[in-house]
Design a protein that fits this description.
The complex is a heterodimer of chains A (293) and B (272).
Chain A (H helix, E strand, L loop, with lengths): L25 H13 L1 H15 L8 H22 L3 H26 L1 H4 L1 H6 L5 H28 L13 H25 L3 H15 L6 H7 L1 H10 L3 H14 L5 H25 L3 H4 L1
Helix pairs in contact in A: 1-7, 1-13, 2-7, 3-4, 3-7, 4-7, 4-8, 4-9, 4-12, 7-8, 8-12, 8-13, 10-11, 12-13
Chain B lengths: L5 E12 L5 H8 L6 E4 L5 E14 L3 E5 L6 H9 L6 E7 L2 E4 L12 H11 L4 H15 L14 H12 L6 E5 L7 H17 L2 E5 L3 H7 L2 E6 L2 E6 L1 H9 L1 H23 L1
Parallel strand pairs in B: 4-8, 4-9, 6-7, 7-8
Antiparallel strand pairs in B: 1-3, 1-5, 2-3, 9-10
Helix pairs in contact in B: 3-4, 3-5, 4-5, 7-9, 8-9
Classes of the chains: A mainly alpha (293), B alpha/beta (272).
InterPro entries (chain A): ABC2_TM
Pfam families (chain A): ABC2_membrane
Subcellular location (chain A): Cell membrane
Chain lengths: 293, 272
């Protein structure tokens, strides 16, 4: 191993003694993930507590999540359907699903990059697997998403979207599982690097906002293609945005639209690469996080 | 239970990178008495060498007290032994379930009730919910808070919080117990009760490492002492000897007095 990239010397000079430092091994990286998962009683509890905490003493509690998203989706849906000349009946469910999936994606990136910084006290005071904080965060996002799903169910009934749904649309379930799997590596990777380089979190903040506009949530690639000519070509640019594919594998089945396999391939490839990076980051920098927070 | 509860470190160093330190402040801090020495690592980042070349080996039954100046590295050493900080150079191996008692407030949520906090705090210390529920009555009894335990923690005074935290910590069976000082803020009567519980906890645990400025407390709980100075182990041996080297004859005589008192009390107990 050459000199360590960040700020510490190579750990290899420890191998003179009988006790050899194994801080930077894959074994410890996997052990961290396993030990963290084994403490699920803790993080399931904490994640749920986080949600309850935010709405403590309010009468309808966490359902404010549902209401806030519902209001936003309805307002934006109505506005943009008028601006773009689309039928509300189709556009409102489209915007709603887009928004609740986006909420999960952006929270993974934004909160993921803060995951270790936010838990500084716990990391410095209690020895536990680093992944506990990641699991807690992702579990909280799943709960958030579950609350938002209620609006989806209402839309399904109100706009008769359920009539479009067929058995293949159950693909939404593995698609969501993939989303969760990606939220995990994103939190690990961005969490570790944003803890070391404190500029990363604000950069990601701006970038996520930019991607929000670039991702077809309030507009659709179909509408662009329908205009033909140069505009239709520009629709292809949206394909360069990786988040579009994540959105699409979840949104298309949830709305009962045609699903395209290439979105899945792209997402699967990103998942594999992302996890590979996460494992390397865990191997090399897991033990450094306590020093950096 | 883990076989062979042990802690072993070999030339373990803990260097804190200080990314935002200016070199100007470096000169000022360089010759200070308290705190670790300051240097640069190979990537030219300023580092505080909080611990340097710590080689020690603790096994089941060891009760070690840490003495030393503020900033000498006692708390950092406890964190190294707990596995929170893995050594930047050298190595450390910790075998056994660790219960660190550093900051009693950490992991406490002011918005939830005392009961819920007891459970969460227990989960943080590696217990299961079931185990904590089984211990709940005993802990509630110990804290003497009664009905108050169902109130949110934010309504508690500092002393009441310490009671809850102490109740949880002293209820578990750790293999390695790491205690940092600063368990104050409780009234004298409760402290007496806590001390007895703490002593029982120490008896149950395999290894104890205890950092304190109270020589009396040290003599009561430990059977050897370690003087940490500028991030290194300066001396390790009998409490009396270490305290004599660190603080002088008066303090050492006091330690001898305390140990003698304890022995006499024990003998009396045995006799009766």
């Amino acid at each position: 191993m050459s000199a360590a990239a960040l700020d510490h010397g190579p750990a290899s000079d420890a191998d003179t003694g009988p006790v050899v430092s194994d801080s930077q091994t894959f074994r410890r990286a996997f052990q961290d993930l396993r030990d963290g998962f084994a403490q699920r009683e803790l993080w399931l509890n904490l994640g749920w507590q986080d949600i309850k905490q935010r709405y403590r003493r309010s009468v309808i509690g966490p359902f404010w999540i549902t209401i806030a998203t519902g209001v936003q989706a309805t307002a934006m849906g109505i506005l943009y359907s008028a601006l773009l000349g689309m039928s509300i009946k189709e556009f409102l469910p489209y915007v709603t699903v887009g928004l609740i999936v986006w909420a999960m994606i952006s929270a993974s990136i934004l909160e993921g990059s803060e995951v270790f910084i936010a838990n500084e006290g716990l990391i410095k005071q209690l020895p536990s697997a680093l992944s506990v904080h990641v699991y807690r965060l992702v579990w909280r996002q799943i709960l958030f998403f579950a609350h938002n799903l209620l609006i989806y169910v209402i839309m399904l009934v109100a706009f008769g979207v359920w009539r479009n749904l067929t058995w293949p649309d159950l693909a939404a379930i593995p698609a969501l599982a993939l989303l969760v799997l990606n939220a995990l590596w994103v939190s690990i990777v961005f969490g570790i690097f944003a803890t070391r380089y404190r500029d990363i979190a604000p950069i990601l903040g701006s970038l996520t906002l930019l991607l929000f506009v670039l991702t077809p949530i309030f507009w659709s690639t179909e509408a662009l293609k329908a205009q033909g000519g140069q505009v239709a070509d520009r629709a292809k640019i949206a394909e360069l945005n990786p988040l579009f594919h994540f959105l699409e594998i979840v949104r298309a089945p949830m709305l009962g639209k045609d699903q395209q396999a290439y979105h899945w391939y792209i997402v699967l490839a990103i998942t594999v690469v992302g996890w590979a990076i996460a494992l390397f980051a865990l191997r090399k920098y897991r033990a450094r996080v306590a020093y950096w927070v | 239970m883990t076989d062979n509860v042990s802690i072993e470190t070999r030339n373990a160093c803990v260097d804190f990178p200080i990314f935002d330190a200016k070199s100007r402040s470096l000169k000022k801090a360089f010759l200070g008495k308290a705190g670790g020495s300051i240097g640069r690592n190979d990537s030219d980042v300023i580092v505080v060498e909080a611990l340097k070349d710590i080689t020690l080996s603790l096994k089941e039954g060891d009760r070690v007290g840490l003495v030393g100046h503020n900033g000498a590295g006692k708390s950092t050493l406890l964190r190294l032994l707990s596995g929170i900080y893995e050594p930047t150079r050298g190595s450390a191996r910790v075998r056994g379930r660790v219960a660190p008692v550093f900051d009693l407030g950490v992991g406490m949520d002011p918005e939830i009730s005392g009961y819920e906090n007891i459970i969460i705090r227990g989960l943080f210390l590696g217990q299961t919910r079931k185990q904590m529920l089984a211990k709940m009555d005993e802990i509630a009894d110990f804290t003497e808070l009664g009905e108050y335990l169902s109130m949110p923690l934010r309504t508690y005074s500092t002393g009441m919080r310490v009671r809850v935290a102490m109740g949880v910590v002293t209820s578990i069976d750790p293999e390695i117990l790491l205690l940092d000082e600063g368990i104050g803020a409780v009234d004298a009567e409760f402290m007496k009760k806590a001390r007895i519980r703490l002593q029982k906890l120490v008896e149950r645990s395999g290894i104890l490492v205890f950092a304190s400025h109270s020589n009396e407390f040290l003599a009561q709980l430990c059977d050897s002492a370690m003087w940490i100075d500028h991030g290194q182990v300066r001396q390790h041996g009998e409490i009396e000897d270490v305290v004599r080297a660190y603080e002088g004859d008066d303090a050492a005589d006091h330690v001898r007095q305390v140990i003698a008192d304890m022995k006499r009390e024990e003998d009396e107990e045995r006799a009766s």
